[in-house]
Structures are given as C-alpha cells and as structure tokens.
Amino acid sequence: MPESSGSIGRTPETNVIDFRAAEQLLSARDPRGAVKLLDPVIAAHPENTAARLLRARAFFAAAQLRSAELEFGVVLEREPDNAFAHFALARTYERGGRPEQALRHFRLAAALDPRPQYVAAARFDS
C-alpha cells in the first residue's frame, strides 16, 4: 500500500531535482506548483533553510500571506541575520496591511544589508 507521506522512493537526487524545478516554476509564475514540489522536500529535510525560503517566496507569490509569514519566520529563527528574509517578511506584512510590523523588518533588512531597495523601504528619514 502506498504511503501518503510523499517520501516513498525519494532520494537526495530527487529532492535536488524538485528544488531546482520549484525554482523554475516560481520564475515561471507558478507558485502553487512550486509549493507542491517543495512540500515533500521539506518533509524529508525540515532543516533545509533554502527550501523553506523558496517555499516562503512561493507562498507570497501565491498570496498565501499567513503561510508566507510563518515560513519566513522559520527562516529568521534559524538565520536572524538574513536580510532578504527580513525584507520579504516586511513585504508580507505590508501586503497584509500591517505597516508597523513591516517597517520594523524593512529597517532590520537595511541595517543588515544596505542595498538601495532595502534602505528606501526602511524610510529612515521619516
């Protein structure tokens, strides 16, 4: 009988292939397809921060803001100095109508990495 975990027959190579395919799907604007490919990868390797970050981006692109928020949160628990994750979480909060929380993470992103887009979003002047 097949198991419902989705991990039967999975190899490290399968996980890498699915991760790369999920990147391509996200680039091709199919975030839901990317999430479907990433779910078994993360089930097999829940510690894989890169896969979680990609899934968070896919959730954001699919307008699944609560799922994106949770996934970006997991990434930031593991990598509190990840400027991109702070920026993306801020965009998630902004899109969800939570400007105060967004500004905090925009400013953290800019403090960690002074890229022009991070600094502009941080609105240090205001």
UniProtKB/TrEMBL annotation:
UniProt KW Nucleotide-binding keyword: no
Alphabetical list of PROSITE patterns matching this protein: TPR
Swiss-Prot/TrEMBL TPR repeat ranges: 83-116
InterPro entries associated with the record: TPR-like_helical_dom_sf, TPR_2, TPR_rpt
Keyword line: Repeat, TPR repeat
Any Pfam family hit: TPR_2
Keyword Repeat in annotation: yes
Name of the protein in its database record: Tetratricopeptide repeat protein
